[in-house]
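Allow me, if you will, to draw on your knowledge of protein folds for a short while. Thank you for your consideration; the sequence and its tokens are set out here:
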Amino acid sequence: MKITSPKTRVSHLTPNEEVQVKCRTALELKDKGDYEGAKDMMRPRWKRLGERPDTNGLYPSVAAEFLLSTGILTCWIGSKGQIREAQEHARDLITESMTFYESEGDALKVAAARVELAYCYWCEGSLDEARVLFRESLRKLTVEGNTRARAVLGLAVVEWSAAQLGTALDLLRQNSLLFDKITNRSTKGSYHSQIAIILRHLAKNEKRDEYLQIAIGEFENADRCFKLIRNHRFRADVKNNVGLILLDLKRFKESHKYLLEARRLSSLVRDRVQTAQIDESRAQVLLAENKLKEAESVAGGAVSVLERSGQQCVLSEVLITHGIALARLKKIVRAQFTFQRAIEVAHHVGALNKAGLAALTMIEELPDLSPEILRSAYDRASDWLAKSQSQDISQRLNAVARKVLMSVGGEVKADKATEVLLNKPCDLQREVLKYEGSLIKQALSKVNGSVTRAADLLNLSYQGLAYIIGTRHKDLLKERSPIRRRSRKD
């Protein structure tokens, strides 16, 4: 479902005029959160992400504008879809347009293109490169306006991403008059939203609940801006964030109200990934209310959606929440499998801070990890979270360090030590059968009894594993999911 369906009449225009109108309209649709509509607007000259647009027959200045616009769209659509190659393609398009503006000596256009290039670097996590480009742009953009505001906002987002919360907040507040004057509602709303996000993190780090009330007010300002441009996607993000603040304030009933409204807005644009993120927030509230079964169900549903979407960074976050719910339900084997999967997913895409958070949470939530897993999880968590400036993370790492030390240095009872050291005769066949049963039980526990998925983990066929359970380990029949009989067709 598109958010808007503009009827842009271009039949009476020249090819160059048509492209200019399409670029302007597509960027307006992007600001409204209608990414599909923005892509459609650029057809037939630009058909898909990763493909260079057709600039044949266009004036050089119009071609540069077209390249810049498709580069901007590639950046934001690619970031939303977590398409790895998107930022490289976006940079190529924007750089090509910037080269033309440089040849024309148009300093303002060069600075504007450099702002968009900086956003590409930020989207792929290259914070140092993004910071340099935003600062260079601000030195050139001396006139107040939407472009300078985007550069200020971008630099603040970079500092926030680097955990420089105070620097980011000061930058935004020092430029409050600039954002009061601009006409772009999307940028103005993002300004208020970013202040609120920073305040929420500062409230947690500094134990300042009064920041949370101010943050709610800033989110309300953002919502008013996004409502005026009918950006349901951004409004859903705002409602989701307010719901999380209310969770911090332990106002659970109000939190659920905001999160359900966020879910409704997200459904209007049929964004299943965003809806899954909102469900993860709902699961967090349910965990805080100790409604563990509901939390596990909601988080598990979000995981299923994200597994099909390819959104790996988001998936790792939701897996952590799902792991917490499973751990508190005493489903220990499944919980450990889920935490380790969160680590694997985040590590695969280079999101090491999320991998570290998953490892840290696993230590906190699971009481009886083996010394090897415990030491390994702490080693990776402390390394991957080393650059975090969050006091909360530091305190959590210090707390689990004591747990790791106690596990490694704990005393072994004398009779147990003797038993470990003495050679004992064994029945090989019985021990092999016992070990086989143990592995199968663990695999079934990890996948909630699914024989199909357990077979994949054990590198067996479904039929092979079902036969082994049915003949050699009948005690495990209760561990597997019920067999669904296919109805016979007449």
Remarks:
- The radius of gyration is 27 Å.
